[in-house]
């Protein structure tokens, strides 16, 4: 059988002055060769690994607290604690520590803490102890001054604590307090306030154990009522005895547990309400008080968790239909406080705590409680549910998926949560916001598990969209049956905004589930009805929902939007907003700007073809004219596929070949003998030459005819397109003759064939310093063709292409002679 006397928990104090649980194991003491001395060893009870190996240093100050704690420091900022299951084990190890240090085991601290300066140490050598004045009414002022003067020095503080502890001074002071209170001696009561406050700042567990005992704690609180800075004393004792009531909802048979609960409540009250807020310099002086409360809470949770009868009775009464409402309210409040206490536990202990509650059936119990009419009970149940979701959302998902196989959709736990969110009576919807956050956590794929056999994401989302999504979207669908929201009051709008926020989250994080739901149920059309709401925040939520959908650049969504003309309500809202410069205006323009910048071709064509007349007069931004330009360029490409393909070929063959390939081909050209070519022979076969001439001239002719018919508006658009961040690039076809000749007569094969070495497309055919032979564009005649802007990421290539083409506007004389030879 395991020796429970030696069973301990190892704690370390972190930077936030909170105790971190390092594990549970069994402690022993023995000589360790490596450390050259007797050491404390703690081995984990789970796997026998070493949790602690600490040499008992003769100069280290060890403190024994609450009969089951041993606390000490190793290094400047490294505090350790051993919490024993039984007092006998603590005493045994304490005796071993005292034996190594040569101390009497009856003391609670083995060394004096020496942090003072050398001068203080020297001065103090002549006074080994601190003598306290007699505990009398006329000496209270002297004692208050002594306490105040001792607090700044760690050594004097330690000596004062030993003197107060050894002489039983606290009980004597409390007797004086009762006398002063009976005599209404305010001066004495004010001195006692300062003295007791100073004793708290001594930060010593042995003193706290006396002060927080059942017979002393109320008098200690009484002393702290008489703050000299207040005109009238506080009434803390009256509150604790008359107002605050301990309700034992389930009988607690263990008297030690009951006493620990009372003590912890009162000490927590002292820390939070009675003691003045500590200054920056006093903060660390109350670390032992924090530790006292922390370990008490750990003990309470552990003792309750181990009492199976107590928890069984608790959940049985919670789910029993015959339990009256008042009793159930008390039970839920207790369970909520129990869960709140668990937040002080370390992760390992918290895991065990929630696992115990899960095994006891906390989720089915919450399901029953959430179905009740009592608002306070439901609120407490919601808080408990939030603890469970934050701790382990997968546990909650698994439960709701299992219950769906047995119960109807109406009574599923998640549907109850959604219904409470929808039916929240709070005008500010505080509860609904909390519940929406919990649903969001449950729907977040980031915290879903994936194993070899199953994927939680797929299973849970399939379950949610089948059984729960219709409940969540019901208020939205019910309120958007016409062109305007049926109900447009503030509370309804807030609720719909919450639902839209959750749906937007689903669009961002779920894939085909939400897509199928939106398209099949025509959700986006219903959502866009809300753009007509009088509440701007709701209209913006609707726009944000559509913007997230467009941002996915999914053609399924795009076709759905075009098929149902879903930009119409957006355009209406934009025109209704007028010229007001507000969030609505900016959000709508940003949506159209995104379509333009990202060049979403299907949506660009849809917007221009259906809504251009409504938007063409908007000129304070260039977004809509830019969309029209995009659209025109798309049409040009569709009408002239040969020109578009030629442009693609030129880009690929002229600018995307390896530099070494260009050099090799150029070298081969100059190495070719003129004698190898017959007079007038082109570099490419005649058939290819003729094909190039016909292919190029046909679209040029058509383009010129169309160009003459374009109105002044088009010129304005082209002129303003520079607002997009770059000038419209032009694709220049240069000819050796004049402008007029170039347009009217077919060019020579050498000058137009992209494959010929002397053409503009061949490597080395132009020089940056050569004067151009033609001008590109005039009002009467156009030599060049307008190129079409490509995606933003190709901007640099386009600029490079312009530079390359400007180099090729002229043909060097050497190559001209080569062609004409």
Automatic annotation (TrEMBL):
<feature type="compositionally biased region" description="Low complexity">
    <location>
        <begin position="734"/>
        <end position="756"/>
    </location>
</feature>
<dbReference type="Pfam" id="PF22972">
    <property type="entry name" value="EVH1_PP4R3"/>
</dbReference>
<feature type="domain" description="Serine/threonine-protein phosphatase 4 regulatory subunit 3-like central">
    <location>
        <begin position="143"/>
        <end position="633"/>
    </location>
</feature>
<feature type="region of interest" description="Disordered">
    <location>
        <begin position="672"/>
        <end position="821"/>
    </location>
</feature>
<dbReference type="Pfam" id="PF04802">
    <property type="entry name" value="PP4R3"/>
</dbReference>
<dbReference type="GO" id="GO:0006974">
    <property type="term" value="P:DNA damage response"/>
</dbReference>
<feature type="compositionally biased region" description="Low complexity">
    <location>
        <begin position="768"/>
        <end position="778"/>
    </location>
</feature>
<feature type="compositionally biased region" description="Polar residues">
    <location>
        <begin position="721"/>
        <end position="733"/>
    </location>
</feature>
<protein>
    <recommendedName>
        <fullName>Serine/threonine-protein phosphatase 4 regulatory subunit 3</fullName>
    </recommendedName>
</protein>
<dbReference type="InterPro" id="IPR011989">
    <property type="entry name" value="ARM-like"/>
</dbReference>
<feature type="compositionally biased region" description="Acidic residues">
    <location>
        <begin position="789"/>
        <end position="806"/>
    </location>
</feature>
<comment type="similarity">
    <text>Belongs to the SMEK family.</text>
</comment>
<feature type="compositionally biased region" description="Acidic residues">
    <location>
        <begin position="672"/>
        <end position="681"/>
    </location>
</feature>
<dbReference type="InterPro" id="IPR011993">
    <property type="entry name" value="PH-like_dom_sf"/>
</dbReference>
<dbReference type="GO" id="GO:0072542">
    <property type="term" value="F:protein phosphatase activator activity"/>
</dbReference>
<feature type="compositionally biased region" description="Basic and acidic residues">
    <location>
        <begin position="703"/>
        <end position="718"/>
    </location>
</feature>
<feature type="domain" description="PP4R3 EVH1-like">
    <location>
        <begin position="5"/>
        <end position="101"/>
    </location>
</feature>
<dbReference type="InterPro" id="IPR016024">
    <property type="entry name" value="ARM-type_fold"/>
</dbReference>
<dbReference type="InterPro" id="IPR006887">
    <property type="entry name" value="P4R3-like_central_dom"/>
</dbReference>
<dbReference type="InterPro" id="IPR051137">
    <property type="entry name" value="PP4R3-like"/>
</dbReference>
<comment type="function">
    <text>Regulatory subunit of serine/threonine-protein phosphatase 4.</text>
</comment>
<dbReference type="InterPro" id="IPR055236">
    <property type="entry name" value="EVH1_PP4R3"/>
</dbReference>
<dbReference type="GO" id="GO:0005654">
    <property type="term" value="C:nucleoplasm"/>
</dbReference>
<dbReference type="GO" id="GO:0030289">
    <property type="term" value="C:protein phosphatase 4 complex"/>
</dbReference>
